[in-house]
Design brief:
heterodimer, B: about 120 residues, four-stranded antiparallel beta sheet, about 0% helix
């Protein structure tokens, strides 16, 4: 059971906007930055969003992150077939004194 | 460019100790506000953060695995080593090392990962 809770799956059609949620608590999301990672099949994860809503260079602006209270969301607009991947949220947890990941969301582009 | 590469055994027996080495290039383990994390992923399952070491040698561990883990670094060799004792089949996973920024979960570069199977 992951400390951060994500829906196991999400889906959308090309061009659509989808959002993936990540729910935590006051000791993690509520008091620390949230990070999002994209993992394409058979590859290592890749940083998608850092410090709640910042995009590394090279990440399309179709990807955006937000945080409110103890929850965070990743939004993907203009969905493309190459966005089909697993998405993970992560944060530092003050109570555990360690990093925590969500259980991951498998995004399917229909 | 920044690269990280994991190395170690592909197969370990139950109760044995696993030792994994992460060799980095393109940055120094003494760079301020940077560190290296170890993360694992059992087949078909989610990522799990294991341990982290900062440039100043500050260390942190997963609470659930703390008694079994040790992380260390050799700056001169550009290597970070993770040991995990008393291995069990449930520890079968791909183990990744990754570079972090000032926050432990700010992971900007990942190694390719190494699959470790625990079986007798």
């Amino acid at each position: 059971q992951s400390v951060l809770t994500q829906p196991p799956s999400a889906s959308g059609t090309p061009g659509q906007r989808v959002t993936i949620s990540c729910s935590g608590s006051s000791s993690n999301i509520g008091s620390n930055y949230v990070y999002w990672y994209q993992q394409l099949p058979g590859t290592a994860p890749k940083l998608l969003i850092y410090r709640n809503n910042q995009r590394p260079s090279g990440v399309p602006d179709r990807f955006s992150g937000s945080k409110s209270g103890t929850s965070a969301s990743l939004a993907i607009s203009g969905l493309r077939s190459e966005d089909e991947a697993d998405y993970y949220c992560a944060a530092w947890d003050d109570s555990l004194s360690g990093g925590v990941f969500g259980g991951g969301t498998k995004l399917t582009v229909l | 460019q920044v690269t990280l590469k994991e190395s170690g055994p592909v197969l370990v027996k139950p109760t044995e100790t696993l030792t994994l080495t992460c060799t980095v290039s393109g940055f120094s383990l003494s760079n301020a506000r940077m560190g290296v994390s170890w993360i694992r992923q059992p087949p078909g399952k989610a990522l799990e953060w294991l341990a982290h070491i900062f440039s100043n040698d500050e260390k942190s561990y997963s609470t659930s695995l703390k008694s079994r883990l040790t992380i260390s670094k050799d700056t001169s060799k550009s290597q970070v080593v993770l040991t995990m004792t008393n291995m069990d089949p449930v520890d079968t996973a791909t183990y990744y090392c990754a570079r972090t920024g000032p926050e432990v979960t700010f992971i900007d570069y990942w190694g390719q990962g190494t699959l470790v199977t625990v079986s007798s």
